[in-house]
Design a protein that fits this description.
This protein is of the alpha+beta class. The protein is built from seven helices and 13 strands. Strands 5, 6, 7, 8, 9, 10, 11, 12 and 13 form a nine-stranded mixed β-sheet that branches. The protein has a four-stranded antiparallel β-sheet with strand order 2-1-3-4, with no helix packed on it. 28% of the residues are buried.
């Protein structure tokens, strides 16, 4: 990769700042001062130091975000704020993307990464990765609804969902539930409740596979995954 790309990924400032850094002789590659940002290097094999400090390169980043409502799950958009806009430049330079999507008005757990292999693993229909949501429902959610979800319900386009686990927390004119699904069709949770004559008024994702929303994260806040969380995800646990 280009040396200036490596320096940017590791948070060494803007392109202008990096040019100044290179010109000063502060960047050393394999014992030799490097002056050109376009220089090609292998950061996994070649030693790079900046002001005597060795760069420990990492290829991938893994970010747990508590997505706020009103922000869209995309890498860029001309009209709306995206989840990438919530990140500081030292993370956004890694070009992360959301693993799956949450609707604009949906809150909660969203994983951002630049690891395409892990993303595919989590989103592949063959893997049956469970996703759990908390929702407020306009209408009384019943045991009959839970039974219907367990068998699979037909959506408005004729698709029959895979079995889902519906837990009723509170039932009444306004109900509260937790729903675990094994797939991720467009607006799936909302459409499942529409199929039984009810409307989702609030939706929050709590977990995806082994990864759970960190309760210490306020809306819009994020942190990198712990080594244990990452290992669990990679092992499909």
């Amino acid at each position: 990769m280009r040396l200036d790309k490596l320096l940017a990924n590791m948070g060494y400032g803007s392109r202008k700042e990096m040019k100044k850094l290179l010109k000063s002789g502060a960047v050393i590659v394999e014992g030799t001062p490097a002056k050109e940002g376009k220089m090609q290097i292998d950061p996994l094999k070649e030693e790079v130091t900046v002001n005597g400090e060795k760069i420990i390169y990492r290829e991938f980043i893994y970010i747990l975000l508590n997505k706020p409502p009103g922000v869209i799950s995309a890498t860029e958009d001309r009209q709306h704020e995206t989840v990438i806009d919530l990140l500081p430049v030292e993370l956004s330079v890694f070009d992360p993307f959301p693993v799956g999507r949450l609707d604009k008005d949906t809150e909660g757990l969203l994983l951002l990464t630049n690891d395409g292999q892990l993303s595919h693993q989590l989103l592949s229909p063959k893997k049956h990765v469970p996703k759990t949501y908390f929702a407020t429902i306009d209408g009384e959610v019943t045991n009959e609804d839970a039974e219907a979800f367990k068998k699979g319900v037909m959506l408005d386009d004729g698709y029959v969902t895979k079995p889902a686990d519906l837990i009723i927390i509170k039932s009444g004119t306004v109900s509260e539930i937790e729903l675990t699904i094994m797939e991720g069709k467009f607006h799936q949770v909302k459409r499942m409740f529409q199929s039984v004559g009810k409307e989702v008024t609030y939706l929050k994702r709590l977990s995806m596979g082994s990864l759970k929303l960190d309760p210490s994260l306020a809306l819009g806040e994020f942190r990198e995954l712990t080594p244990h969380e990452l290992e669990q995800l990679q092992n499909g646990k």
